[in-house]
Specification:
Elements lengths: L17 E3 L3 H11 L10 H9 L2 H13 L13 H10 L2 H13 L1 E2 L2 E2 L9 H8 L2 H11 L5 H11 L2 H41 L5 H9 L7 H9 L2 E7 L7 E5 L2 E7 L11 H15 L2 H13 L4 H8 L3 H14 L2 E6 L2 E6 L1 H15 L12
Parallel strand pairs: 1-4, 4-6
Antiparallel strand pairs: 2-3, 5-6, 7-8
């Protein structure tokens, strides 16, 4: 399985079961998926700029392809370049797109995702799933939470017409690559390569869970999905991306788990890369540049722990607004999430605050303690 820019560690080599590498295709696909996230704050500036440059029709088509048809083409996203990936997709028979989509759906459930190999759907399964739009939507509801029925009804028209599905997918990906992704990849690739080198060199001797936690820079998300995938994957391949901000991207391909994380340098890196340091600082400061999020941190500091309901009541905000703020603060590392009494609670991580201030001082070239101005 070719992985671009896999780097040999300068210290003890990391175990073969995990590594940090550039994943140009998965990275581009994640960037296209982010264009659909209108209510998520803290994403890379490219996401907002590109979304604003696209027409409503282009945005709708991107949502159809990247949400409704994603698993028809995403299973081989670890190829060495996006151009090679598009050529590969073009060489595939149309029916393979339908097979991949249905095979992925058949091994999924709302709270887990199996990495076990599965044969393509049988003729009987195919007929059962695709015999009508209503049956297709009912099938999706059995395997996934929060199904967008309008979107999936549009997707159904392509799923039952594999040549049309293949044509739509490839034409959209090629259009987005040429118009938006290619120039951006040329710009960010050197920065991402330096992040790969720094992380791969720092991973010597770590166990898998420790390595993943070190690379993403915080505790693993407290969900069964992450526990299952990290334990059962044959390999875990982690890759920096310039657009995901503090959040994580994830994809299962075969028996491998791919994790996309916001581009940065590892803790204690010997050298500075100004572009990476600036990107990390902007990501962290963005999480603080909001009155609600600052007040949530103050609530957590005062009470020790807070729940979403307490945030909603204390700040008089909606559940969705509280959820967005808590998600960003947790992803950035300012809050630590844990399960408690059947729900989630959040506590402040003071070390993350101090580390943010230290990172800003280092970027500005300031000493830890600045002298006070003399009084006039």
């Amino acid at each position: 399985m070719p992985i671009e820019a896999s780097v040999t560690a300068t210290r003890q080599a990391a175990p073969a079961t995990y590594q940090v590498a550039l994943l140009p295709v998965f990275s581009q696909l994640k960037s296209l998926m982010l264009l659909n996230e209108k209510n998520v704050s803290g994403l890379g500036e490219w996401v907002q700029r590109t979304r604003e440059s696209m027409t409503l029709e282009q945005l709708q088509k991107n949502r159809l392809v990247m949400c409704g048809l994603f698993y028809a083409f995403s299973t081989e996203g670890d190829m060495p370049s996006f151009g090679a990936y598009l050529d590969h997709l073009q060489s595939l028979p149309p029916m393979s797109f339908q097979d991949r989509l249905l095979t992925t759906y058949l091994r999924a459930s709302p709270d887990s995702f199996s990495m076990e190999d599965r044969d393509p759907p049988t003729a009987a399964e195919r007929q059962r799933i695709l015999s009508s739009p209503d049956i297709y939507l009912s099938f999706l509801s059995e395997h996934f939470d929060d199904v967008d029925f309008d979107l999936e009804a549009q997707a159904y028209r392509y799923v039952i017409d594999p040549p049309a599905m293949k044509s739509l997918i490839i034409s959209h990906l090629r259009e987005m690559w040429e118009a938006h992704l290619a120039a951006e990849w040329t710009r960010v690739r050197p920065m991402l390569s330096k992040a790969v080198e720094a992380f791969q060199a720092a991973l010597g001797g770590m166990g898998r869970r420790e390595a993943v936690r070190f690379v993403i820079g915080r505790e693993l998300p407290d969900t069964c999905w992450w526990e299952q995938q990290i334990e059962t994957a044959e390999r875990v391949i982690m890759s920096p991306t310039a657009h995901v901000g503090p959040y994580l991207g994830k994809c299962v391909s075969g028996k491998d788990l791919f994790i996309l994380f916001g581009a940065r340098l590892p803790e204690g890196a010997a050298s500075e890369v100004p572009d990476l340091s600036r990107t990390e600082i902007l990501t962290r400061l963005d999480a603080l540049a909001d009155d609600h999020r600052l007040n949530i941190l103050r609530m957590a500091a005062d009470a020790g722990e807070v729940r979403a309901t307490e945030v909603m009541t204390g700040l008089d905000i909606s559940q969705s607004a509280a959820s967005r703020s808590l998600t960003q603060l947790t992803a950035t590392g300012y809050l630590i999430e844990r399960r408690k009494d059947g729900g989630k609670s959040y506590s402040l991580d003071p070390a993350r605050i101090e580390d943010t201030l230290s990172s800003l001082r280092r970027f500005l070239g300031l000493r830890a303690e600045m002298p006070r101005r003399p009084e006039k």
